[in-house]
Amino acid sequence: MALSYHLLPRLQFTKTVRFTVKSQTPTEPSSEGGEVPQKKPSSQGLGFGSSATSASNSSVSSKQKKGRASIIRRSPVEKPVLFSEEDEAKAKEMGTNESAFVVAWLGLGGVILVEGLALATSGFLPEEWDKLFVKYLYPSFTPTVLLFIAGTTAYGVIKYLQNEELKGQK
């Protein structure tokens, strides 16, 4: 059923309300157009981080008169060499082993996902398939999940201890 707007009651206001906005701080009255005159910047705008030497020498800011030091730009610090070539090779091998472990664990997670979906949908499948899933898949599901949880917990603890060991060396 469509809504008929002519059946809705109409609100009629007999009194016109005017709102006036007043500032808490006194200001100078502006021109009739209601526009606020814009102030022009007193000095040339130096970009953020620009040096004081690029500004004109005749205009010195009041902050520099009060004793503020000028900004000195320095070249970036080079990364120090902390590892020898042997350490780099060892770290690369550990990275390779770690990525292989993570990929294997993702594969185990995929197996768990497929097993879980198969067990969840086994009630909707034919009776023979359901019996097969209950006989072979159901008993292996819980140990697989427990292996996954134990492995991820051990991995997290090992990585935490490695991180603490690195912090202790610094």
3D structure, described in words:
0% of the residues are buried. Helix 2 (85-121) packs antiparallel against helix 3. This protein starts with 61 loop residues before the first helix and ends with a helix. Helix content is 49%, strand content 0%. It has helices at 62-65, 85-121, 127-169. The chain is mainly α. It contains 3 helices and no strands. The model is unreliable at 54-58 (pLDDT under 50).
Structure in a nutshell:
With 170 residues, this protein is an all-alpha fold.
Element-level helix/strand string: HHH
The value of Rg in angstroms is 37 Å
Put simply, the count of helices is: 3
Assembly type of the chains comes to single chain
Q: What coarse outline follows from CA principal-axis ratios?
A: flat
Mean pLDDT: 76
What is the CA–CA distance across the termini?
75 Å
Layout: helices, strands, pairs:
Elements (H helix, E strand, L loop, with lengths): L61 H4 L19 H37 L5 H43 L1
Helix pairs in contact: 2-3
Question: What tags apply to this protein structure?
Answer:
single chain, mainly alpha
